[in-house]
Amino acid sequence: MGAYIIRRLLLVIPTLLGIMILNFALIQFVPGGPIEQILARLEGGGDVFESFSGGGSEVMSEGNTEYLGAQGLPAEFIAELEREFGFDRPPLERFLNMMWDYVRFDFGESYFRNIAVVDLVLEKMPVSITLGLWSTLIAYLVSIPLGIRKAVRDGTPFDTWTSGAIIVGYAIPGFLFAILLIVLFAGGSYFRIFPLRGLTSDNWEDLSFFMKIADYFWHITLPVLASTISAFATLTLLTKNSFLDEIKKQYVMTARAKGLTESRVLYGHVFRNAMLIVISGFPALFIGVFFGGSLIIETLFSLDGLGRLGFEAAVARDYPVVFGTLFAFSLIGLVVGILTDLTYVLIDPRIDFEARG
Length: 357
Description:
This protein is mainly alpha-helical. The protein folds into two domains: about 1-115, no CATH class; about 120-175 and about 230-355, MetI-like (MetI-like fold), CATH 1.10.3720.10. It is about 70% helix and about 0% strand. It is built from 15 helices and no strands. The longest helix is centred in the middle third of the chain and has 39 residues, at about 210-245. It starts with a helix and ends with a helix. InterPro entries: MetI-like, MetI-like_sf. Keywords: Cell inner membrane, Cell membrane, Membrane, Transmembrane, Transmembrane helix, Transport.
């Protein structure tokens, strides 16, 4: 197992490098870079993207600085901007310098916020921790027992009406469910039970310890429910189908013939085999909710998290934030994938990744 872990860790290097190369190469062909953003604002006070719909402020991208919107600006000023942002150097040199900094976990500073990328991410992290941690935890705590129950009572009225509820939940987009929660419970049209802004109240510092905990959960209830709805539906059906496949196998019939209780059969034999496919979806669910965030849900509930940070950085072409977060989150995602393999072994010791090598 040790050799397998070492191989997987070594595989992280080319995988991560490939991700960075691909995204860096794509960026070179995307118009509207940071210099163009600045020039567009200086010339007209607008946004560079207006030029793509007929406004016309840009002819070439970074490296070939002949901007129609910059015709009234001194060439020395534009050259100074290029030096400041590093675009006076060839793309390969910029990429190698960037990767050397990232290897040392130096992600630089945001172009437009004058703050280190690490500090910026840490500033937004509480929102993503809240949505990711609680959404994933609730999805697993509810979906796994419910999926097992549905598998045991397959075809019964309980299975039928819960399946209907799950299908409805799966069909409703998270942002639409969030709007429904706001309308019903956050002062939209009916009740004003939950707040609609931030993770805590304005007087949070003055509250007692237990009141702080209550205030925190009071604020996160609606956004967490909105983030959990689709993952909950998918995970429940996945658990049910996985258990149904295992229950029909010969070893389950043999265990029952030996006189084992139904609980012992389910949780002593079926559980470890059926849970493998459920655990395999954990990295995608965790990374998707925790790091990707939900731009629309964060916006609806006035939460300033990584979802909004990523969107704003992409629109503003804030490359240090875009590439810094991409590198860090890709690395964490790859490590989580390795931890998932280790969890496989803990659940079912019969799995031998070493033999696969």
